[in-house]
Design brief:
Elements: H1 10-16, H2 18-29, H3 38-55, H4 64-82, H5 88-108, H6 114-121, H7 125-134, H8 154-158, H9 166-169, H10 173-184, H11 188-199, H12 204-211, H13 215-232, H14 234-237
């Protein structure tokens, strides 16, 4: 649609452009982790489309579809930024633990114990466990890990249809080989936990029952395992 002709029937305009919203959503989905729900992006895109219908002014010389595409895409990117469930606090705590583990691993040439990690951080063991609790929701790879610079926006770069997706980059043979080796080097209990959680798709409560510890303890061990893996894969995720 190239003018305001037909925009008076807003419902018809929205129905006509639903395929556009879905097309943009699924294009973004191809470059984002599986945890992102297509329905969430589509809902955000519909809000962007409604906003486009309300705000469109053809006196500016723009085609409606071009304008709507920008508003829809912008609304979806805003949704992705706002729904970043791993807060800055989580990332900061995770990276503190990761750095401590990496330093100890280099010095000891073996996986450090929890007491050793706590000591490296200058914490007693209970405070260290508290920091592990703060890392609930920690990820192996954060969007920020893939920034070209501090001021670069990951989403704006990697949803570009000409760009190579970061998760395609990280799925190559060398990364998979490095990740496999990193998992092998985890302490036995953490290795078992990761297998049950990611391969057998058991939840933390179920894993706790198998290992004879609380769900909270499994959460701590999961955060610690992720920090160990990030330490092992430092050249890939930092």
């Amino acid at each position: 649609m190239s003018s305001t002709e037909g925009l008076t029937d807003k419902d018809a305009v929205i129905r006509a452009h639903l395929p556009l919203v879905k097309r943009i959503a699924y294009h973004l989905m191809s470059r984002l982790p599986a945890s992102v729900e297509a329905d969430d992006l589509i809902q955000a895109g519909l809000i962007g489309l409604l906003d486009a219908v309300e705000r469109f002014d053809d006196s500016q010389g723009a085609h409606f579809e071009t304008y709507a595409t920008q508003r829809v895409r912008g609304a979806m990117l805003d949704e992705l930024r706002e729904s970043d469930w791993a807060s800055r606090t989580v990332r900061k705590a995770s990276r503190q633990i990761e750095s401590a583990i990496h330093a100890l691993q280099q010095r000891l040439q073996r996986p450090p114990t929890e007491q050793e990690i706590a000591g490296q951080l200058g914490l007693d063991i209970n405070d260290y466990f508290g920091l592990l609790n703060d890392t609930r929701g920690a990820q192996l790879v954060y969007y920020e890990d893939l920034h070209a610079s501090e001021n670069d926006d990951f989403l704006d770069r990697f949803v570009d249809e000409l760009a190579i997706g970061p998760f395609e980059m990280l799925s190559d043979h060398d990364f998979k080989k490095a990740l496999t080796q990193a998992v092998i080097e985890l302490p036995d209990r953490e290795k078992m936990l990761m297998g049950m959680y990611y391969e057998q798709e058991m939840n933390f409560k179920e894993i706790g029952a198998v290992l004879g510890v609380s769900e909270s303890r499994i959460c701590q061990l999961h955060g610690q395992a992720i920090a160990r893996l990030r330490g092992f894969l430092r050249d890939w995720v930092s």
